[in-house]
Amino acid sequence: MSIDDLADIADIADIADIADIADIADIAVDAFRGLRGYQRDQAFMDVERQIRRLVALQAAMLAEVTVSYSYLDDAHHTPVSWAQAV
């Protein structure tokens, strides 16, 4: 399996249901086993970039909750308490 195949799997993961994530992870690890050298490095860093992108998205969402005071909609005292409850 190639780097492009792993990228396709990552694209599928973007639209997958939560129940399917474990299956996607299994497929991705199986594909990863077939990679060597720089391809493994690249695949690993592709996953790391996805993680960082999602963390940034989460931070932006928390910032929006903070400035809009929408955490009060659910009777939370702070944005952090809202995030912990969610």
Principal-axes geometry comes out as elongated
Strand count, sense and closure of the main sheet?
none
What is the average per-residue confidence, as pLDDT, rounded to a whole number? 81
Our count of domains comes out at 1
Task: State the end-to-end distance.
Answer: 37 Å
Number of strands: 0
What's this, in brief?
The protein is an all-alpha fold and 86 residues long. It has 4 helices and no strands.
Can you tag this structure with a few keywords?
86 residues; mainly alpha; 4 helices; 74% helix; 0% strand
Task: Describe the fold and architecture.
With 86 residues, this protein is mainly α. It has one domain (3-85). Helices cover 74% and strands 0% of the residues. It contains 4 helices and no strands. It has helices at 3-15, 21-33, 38-68, 79-85. The longest helix is centred in the middle third of the chain and has 31 residues, at 38-68. The radius of gyration is 17 Å and the shape is elongated.
Topology record:
Elements: H1 3-15, H2 21-33, H3 38-68, H4 79-85
